[in-house]
Amino acid sequence: GAVVSQHPSWVICKSGTSVKIECRSLDFQATTMFWYRQFPKQSLMLMATSNEGSKATYEQGVEKDKFLINHASLTLSTLTVTSAHPEDSSFYICSARRTASSNQPQHFGDGTRLSIL
Amino acid sequence: AQTVTQSQPEMSVQEAETVTLSCTYDTSENNYYLFWYKQPPSRQMILVIRQEAYKQQNATENRFSVNFQKAAKSFSLKISDSQLGDTAMYFCAFTPYGGATNKLIFGTGTLLAVQP
Hints:
The structure holds two protein chains of two kinds.
Chain A: E1 4-7, E2 10-13, E3 19-25, E4 32-38, E5 44-51, E6 57-58, E7 67-73, E8 76-81, E9 90-97, E10 107-108, E11 112-116
Parallel strand pairs in A: 2-11
Antiparallel strand pairs in A: 1-3, 3-8, 4-5, 4-9, 5-6, 7-8, 9-10, 9-11
Chain B: E1 3-5, E2 10-14, E3 19-21, E4 24-26, E5 32-39, E6 46-52, E7 60-61, E8 64-69, E9 74-79, E10 88-96, E11 105-106, E12 110-115
């Protein structure tokens, strides 16, 4: 159990376009979802935390107008990179947690490799 | 501030042998959770093992076990009978107990290569 699906796994697009990444918990309901960014050979950097039905909480330095997060249901959260530019190219990973409390572990998706030309 | 330190950027071990990955952390919290996550070349993060700070007994999960030293704020991972499929980046992570916004704090990772 505790499967998280992320789609797409890889996307290449032109500079200036917006890209939407989906994160779904397939066999459990996720009260809280997290979005991370990972650069090559580096650790995961938390971008934002979202609770179902609430506005996302963004980490310091992350532009909320650039990275739009929607957590409209207990099984789906989306990250939209608006007007993407080459510096936004990265590996984006989502995770989902059953409850709002950190007692429960986070379960991670497979990640999305975003390449902006 | 809460931090997690992994002092070994890369390690190598022969197949079937045992390897220990180091992790130290800094916190003023008394109750918290510690995790080891594995990220193979496929890039998916996989939970390897979890330890609750209030438990004195070290967590074990098949070939994976931890040495949790709360006073020393140390949380090392031991992999026994290493297999080729264990080749991956390993991240140590910390989160305070409870709370809706508590987040995982990751170390910088240790790249483990299991040699045939």
